[in-house]
Amino acid sequence: MGCFHSTAKRQHPGYEDPVDLASQTSFSVSEVEALFELFKSISGSVIDDGLINKEEFQLALFKNQRKENLFANRIFDLFDVKKRGAIDFGDFVRALNVFHPNIPMDEKIDFSFKLYDMDSTGFIERKEVKQMLIALLGESEMRLSDDIIETILDKTFSDADANQDGKIDRTEWENFVTRNPSLMKIMTLPYLKDITTTFPSFVFNSEVDDLVT
Amino acid sequence: KPESMNAFALISRSQGFNLGNLFEK
């Protein structure tokens, strides 16, 4: 399959060797190559520059509906580790790796903490949680009064904020999600165990002679 | 439901957190 030597490296500025990426993650080489098929389709949806920009990310997440969404923005920002407004292939694979079923819970808890710590202060603050609740209401049919939102925040912080200082630190978060494991469901994507069958065309573009599954 | 009083359980329902959508063609 070496004869295929595609133009991936030239067209994708953040392209990294699948063998290297597989060694850094829970993915096999074949799975990294299958992820490249997904990456190509997302990164070429608006501007074919080999990078995923925020608009392309949101289009992929919301199935071609153009939506501005606080939560999708936050995920994008965490995937965009180089903080340049775009996700390259290496960023994409390493960030998705956190969502792999085989990744230790501690790494998932770290990522989820960063997800909710929107302003990166090292704490999940009440005002951030309120902002997220209001954003959620904005995208759904749910209508809740400010009193009810405050009651939900009171209950949540009385459960999660052990030292009652009005913000949730990393240890408090870990204890809270350990007691409420359903909160970690969003941190595991079963799809990641099945990507070579979802994107079988990777076989035609493989640059590796002996595919490792 | 008790979950309805857990802000994070509500927030995690956002479509913006549903990365599974990336894999659905």
From TrEMBL, chain A:
* Pfam family for this entry, one: EF-hand_7
Q: Which GO terms describe its biological process?
A: calcium-mediated signaling
PROSITE patterns, per the entry: EF_HAND_1, EF_HAND_2
Top-level lineage group:
Eukaryota
Q: Which GO terms describe its molecular function?
A: calcium ion binding; kinase binding
The record's principal subcellular location, in a coarse class, is: membrane
Give the keywords, sorted: Calcium, Membrane, Metal-binding, Repeat
The EF-hand domain is annotated at 67-102, 104-139, 148-183
Under the cellular component aspect of Gene Ontology, which terms does the record hold?
membrane
**Which compartments is it annotated to reside in?**
Membrane
Described function:
Acts as a calcium sensor. CBL proteins interact with CIPK serine-threonine protein kinases. Binding of a CBL protein to the regulatory NAF domain of a CIPK protein lead to the activation of the kinase in a calcium-dependent manner.
Assembly and binders:
Homodimer. Interacts with CIPK.
Q: Can you tell me which family this protein belongs to?
A: Belongs to the calcineurin regulatory subunit family.
Q: What is this protein called?
A: Calcineurin B-like protein
Species of the source: Zea mays (Maize)
